[in-house]
Design a protein that fits this description.
Number of domains: 1
Shape: globular
Bound molecules: zinc ion
Distance between the termini: 13 Å
CATH topology: Aminopeptidase
Strand order of the largest sheet: 4-1-5-8-6-7
Order of helices and strands: EEEHEHEEHEHEHH
Oligomer: single chain
Number of helices: 6
Number of strands: 8
C-alpha cells in the first residue's frame, strides 16, 4: 500500500493566513516552491500518493484565517492521508536565530516524531543549518485536529539573512532534505 502524504505548504499566497516576511522574502513563496519540488521528487516514487494544499501558485484555501486552517485539515481527511506534513519557515525577533525544527502534537506522537527526526537529520546534511530538534505544540490547530499523524517542519528562519537567502535561492536543498528524510523513515 502506498503512503498517502498531504503536503501543506503552510500559507495562502495573499489576503489572509499569509506567512512571515523577512529580508525581502515571503514565507508563503518559499513554502510554495519547496512543497512543489518535494511533490515532484516524491511523485517519481510509486510508494507515495500525494496531494498539495497549493497545487497552483494562486490557490487560496478558506475564506478567513481560521477557515484556511480548517480547510487544510478537511482536505487531508478527505484525501485519506497517512501523514499531514506542514511546511513553514520560522521567524524570530533575534536575527541570529537559525536552524530547522519540527513540531509535533505530543510525546506520544511516535510516527510524527520518527519522521521528524529523519527529516531534521537529512535537512542538516543538505542545508548545513543546525538541528533544533523536536518541539511539542499541542495547541497548534493542524497538529491537534488531524486524525492522522501530523508533522510541522519549520525550515530555517526568514528573519536570519543567511537562512532566508538559502531558502529563497536554494529551495532544492530543503526539498531534497525533506525527500530523503521521508524515504528513510518509510523504507
Ligand atoms: Zn508559517
Amino acid at each position: 500500500m502506498a503512503t498517502r502524504i498531504y503536503i501543506d505548504q503552510g500559507h495562502n499566497p495573499r489576503g489572509f493566513n499569509t506567512g512571515a516576511e523577512g529580508n525581502g522574502f515571503y514565507e508563503q513563496d518559499i513554502t510554495y516552491e519547496i512543497g512543489r519540488r518535494l511533490y515532484d521528487l516524491l511523485s517519481s516514487n510509486p510508494d507515495f500518493v500525494l496531494r498539495l494544499s497549493r497545487p497552483t501558485e494562486d490557490t487560496i484555501l478558506g475564506t478567513s484565517n481560521s477557515s484556511s486552517l480548517v480547510e487544510r485539515v478537511r482536505e487531508a481527511e478527505e484525501f485519506g492521508a497517512d501523514m499531514f506534513l506542514s511546511l513553514h519557515v520560522n521567524s524570530a525577533a533575534n536575527p541570529s536565530a537559525t536552524g530547522n525544527e519540527a513540531l509535533v502534537y505530543s510525546p506520544s506522537s511516535t510516527v510524527s516524531i520518527g519522521l521528524g527526526e529523519e527529516i531534521l537529520e537529512q535537512l542538516t546534511l543538505t542545508t548545513g543549518l543546525r538541528n533544533r530538534g523536536i518541539i511539542y505544540r499541542p495547541g497548534l490547530y493542524v497538529l491537534r485536529e488531524t486524525s492522522m499523524p501530523a508533522l510541522l517542519v519549520e525550515m530555517g528562519f526568514i528573519s536570519n539573512p543567511y537562512d532566508a537567502e538559502l531558502l529563497a535561492y536554494s529551495p532544492n536543498l530543503f526539498a531534497i532534505g525533506l525527500y530523503r528524510g521521508i524515504l528513510n523513515y518509510y523504507s
